[in-house]
Structures are given as C-alpha cells and as structure tokens.
Amino acid sequence: MLTKKVIIFGPFVGEFGWELLFWQGWVKKACREMYVDYYKVAVSYPGREPFYPDVDEFIPLPDYLVSKGLSARNYICDGWIDGYPGSALRYRWSFITALKDVIQGRRPHKIAIEKKWDGPSIFPLVTTFCDELNQKFSNKGHVQFISPWRMNEVGDLHFGWRNPNDLKLFGRPSNVIKIEFEDQILERIRPTGGHKFQSLDSKSKVAVFPRRRGFRREDKNWGEEKYRKLINLLQDSGYEVAILGDKNGAYFVNNPPKGVIDLVNIKDNDRLNSHLQYLTTANYAIGAMSGATLMSLAAGTPTVIFGYPDEQMRYHHENYLDTPLFYVSEINPAVNEVIDALKKLDTYLNWRPIRDLI
Questions:
Q1: What is the C-alpha to C-alpha distance for residues 108 and 103, in angstroms, rounded to an integer?
Q2: Which of 3.30.428.10, 3.40.50.2000, 3.40.50.2300, 3.40.50.620 is the CATH number of 205-349?
C-alpha cells in the first residue's frame, strides 16, 4: 500500500571532505525545507549517520562496493568507468582549458595525464545498488533519487557531476558543480552514538590524523616515522593522544603506537561517531591537509593543519564554524614545526600552557 513519496539522498560514494562541505549541509536544508512530508533516506559509507540527523532512515553502502577499497574523488570515485578517472602521472598546461577556467571563474588547472585505476568500474556497481534501493522502497510510494554523481536540478539549484564524452577528461574540475555554502545549512557535526574507549579525563587530549593514501595524492602523506615522533613528544609531555582515521587511508593499521587511543582499527560502523565523541572532548587536533582535519574543525576542535601554501586560504574559508585554526604553510614540515604551531595555537587560546616538548 502506498504511504508517501520517498526521497533518497545518494548513494554518496565520493570524498569525505566533499560530503562534509558540499553535500550533508544541503541534505539538512532539503529535509527541513523541501521534503518535509517525504520518507527521507540517506545512503553513504557505513557509520556516516551523524551527517544526516534529519532523515527517517540511513542505509550504508553495501559490502560489494565498500570492499573495492574505493578511491573517492569529489562526488565520484577513481575508476568510475573503465579505469577513469585515474592517478595523475604528470600534468601539462592547455591554453584553451586554462582560458575556459578563467572565463568561468575557476582557478586554472593543468590537464592530468593519468594512470588508469586497476579495478572494476564503480558506476555500474552504484547503479545496481540504486536498483536494489528502488525495489526496497517501492512499496512505500514513488521513489525519487537525488545523487551528486549525476547532474541535478532542484528548484533554482543546479549541482552534481557531468559525464564527459572522453573518459580521459573525467578528472577535470570543470565536470563538477558543487553546492555552495549559501545553499546549505552548515552546523556543528555531533555524534549520535559511538565506540566505547577508555579516556583519561585528567589529561589534555590531542587527536592526531595520520593520513596515508596510496593511489592518488600521495604527496599529501607525511611520513609514518614523523607521526610516531610527534605522538611520542606529545605523550612524553603528559598528553593523551588518540589516532583517528580510516583503515583505507591512514598509517598504523594493525600497528598503533604504544599508549594511544586507537580509533583507526575499529569497525567502520563506529568510526565517525567515535571520532566525534573524542573530538568533542579533545583540546586539539593535528593533521595534514585533508577532509578529516576539516571535520575536526566542523566538530569545533581547535586544529593544526599543515599543507601547501596556496591551499591556506581555502582551508580558512572551508572552516565554516570559524573554529580556531593554525595552518602551517608547508606540505612536509619538520616535527618541531608542527609542535611550534601547537604551542602558538595554545598561547592564542590562553589555555593551559603546553610543556616544553623539544
């Protein structure tokens, strides 16, 4: 028997940072203003419920998708169709492409010469899952999908991902139309549950994001030994340290440093809630430029981020809560530089002075 219309937001298969900045806030707005009388469903990676407090049901991506070790890229994934988009082997300038970027108000980008993703095409797997979802909810009423991996027109808003005719052009930024901040409701991200962990309430707490990616943008990775040294210095100073991250994108999988609270090697269903539970009590967070460090800012945790100088303004702009942030303008800083940044952030906030770490 038909009950009401069903709106399905997703499946979201893209980057964590894009889900945080250019998707979940619009889903909040859509649920509260446009689809109030619908049965509302959000579909994303396992454990992402905190992004979608307004839906009637959250459904995780199935194992036959997650088990592929998806390399997410904006609203889609690497290997979307026939291995493209892939990992950049090198870049070259195209005058025509750069001119189009400037005319359309985008920062000019070089064209990537890509190495194909070695794995199955992701798009057919996603459409198969959509068919399963449509069948699951068809008894409730008419089912409508709004998926960011295709072009959407909702009222006056146009957003999503364009499918180019040439597969080798998949990775071009011009194929993506993101949802801007002014079209969203962006709020502090709060936990809705969480993994139980033993925390020492008497200590000040630091969350460390040991980012590691293997297929694309390895240049953002900081060395594992640098993370170990950073963690050791913090612990020697009396700080409690937790490591946060995804097993597909972090160091210390199955070998966490001694004495840390390990929130990397936990179940996917518990991951985001557990990270948020810790971040709500942490004094600071530290990590390389990534969507994860933007999440710590969205949780309200003062954060030290290190990355490329030309990305600094973007990180301040995308810090939509104006959480205290110290950005180290170097992609591969020395450990002592990161410690110094933490000291400066601590001084700025006038919190408990950090003990001498070096």
A1: 10
A2: 3.40.50.2000
